[in-house]
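Final report, closing paragraph on structural work. Over the funding period we assembled a curated collection of sequence-structure pairs, and we close with a single example.
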Amino acid sequence: MRIQLIIIICLLVSACSTNDDEFIESFKNVETIELTAKEVKVDQSSLILSYMFEMEYVDSLLIINEYPDKDYCLKIVDLKTGTLRPFAKKGKGPNEIQAQSCNYSVDQINNELYITDRNTYYVYSIDSLMNEIIKPTSSFSVRIKNIPFLSSSYCSNKIIGSTYENKLGVYDINSDTCFTKYKYANDPLIEQGRFCCHPTKQLAVFFQAKSAIMDIFEIKDNDVLRKEFVWWSSAKKDQRKAIPVKTRKNGFITASSSEKFIYSLYSGKMVNTQSIKTLTDAFLSQYVYVFDWDGKPNKVYKLDQDVRSIAIDDKNNILYAASYKGDIPNIVKYQL
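Its predicted structure, as stored:
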């Protein structure tokens, strides 16, 4: 009888251990800080916030990804005035986004915004955007071996991104040269993830979509050094399913960065495709896991509500977030 009891206890312990999330466990020895939100007042009388899958903060503006909006890819919130306006119009005309969605990133040093529809990169002055001048200051095209980047970001006078066959491609804006590295071991990867770059250094972090795989890249001349982090022992590298199956766990949702830290919004929830509500829940989280730029866990922020995306105001030490509390999209902020 005693032997049977020991076996049952061992099985229960084993079952519990298989449910542990290796990523969450890696932060067990760091401080968890609870934060309380303050509402950011935004005038939504004539235009409303909807999806808010990603956001970037720069110079009192929040630039928000509103795909799948039918007319515009982005919206801009002016935090000084509380106004909301559409941006990055879709269409075939001059300076319009000729795709259903776009990548965008910020050059913090030169105070510029980079937007691309995977064919053309448009550069906007942040000062002009604050004055509602929406004409780009310049534009250019980037193609690696005649193939455009699938996802990309500005990184210290370079465009870095993933291609159909390589995890990383690097395009030097000044010299008009490019190279690729880290070819996928198996098949080409369609759905990859999101790049998030250091504000001033040639460092970038890549979060693989719907997984717990992270890469930190350091760009050096015509080479790149990589640190790879894989937390789920059951995870298969280079996930290829565009839509997760209902038994699969969701990982990283989105991220933001500052001079010292990488902020990752992480799910860890099982994906349930029975309804839009249950599917959406796996892409919301109240936990922000913070790394330093060596990939070492630093702290965890526990928010007072689930959010969909985050952005960091490094100067004022504020975390902005897209909240769906009460099923109403809105912006909140947390003082760090």
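Confidence is low (pLDDT under 50) at residues 1-19, 237-246. The CA atoms of residues 245 and 271 lie 7 Å apart. We thank the funder for supporting this effort.
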